[in-house]
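>> received
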Amino acid sequence: MKKVETERIFLRESTFDDCEYFAKWEQMDSVTEFFTINKDRDYEEVVTEFICRQDDDDKLQLTICRKNDEKPIGRIYISNIDNHYDSLDITRIYIADKAIRGQGFGEEALRAALKLSFEEMNRERVTLDHFTDNKIAANLYLKVGFQYEGIMRHGGKKDGKYVDLHLMSMLRDEYFAQKNS
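>> returned
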């Protein structure tokens, strides 16, 4: 995968060294509040998960970095890369530092992930989901062109409790129609 750049950020494949960031970030309530990440997650779990995903062709781990200083600021995890159905799922996307949230970095990262998905990987369909009460994510996903498909009842599990998730998707034609408008 080549680096995908936008005005202020770039996406690159995650490296083992990024696990330190991921472990730190994924212990922060402000990051994990709306993800199916358990509170007891630690560095060892992050590393084990990272290594397993590295060897799996249907997964892609990306680090979001600022262009001006190349500092990692977030993460994207793509799964269910299906070459028969030309689809994938953006399973996790976040900007870690609360101080830089709300400045458009998340939108840039999501748009870069869509560019990668539709233009580089030639996908027909991209899905993602969000907790039913995550209004910030819902607004962002609608803004970039995702459409609701329905609610996955008990579609996730966090700290031993099942959670409902809103499923959203974007199709290739929708992506290019919005990009060209």
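>> The chain has a mean pLDDT of 94.
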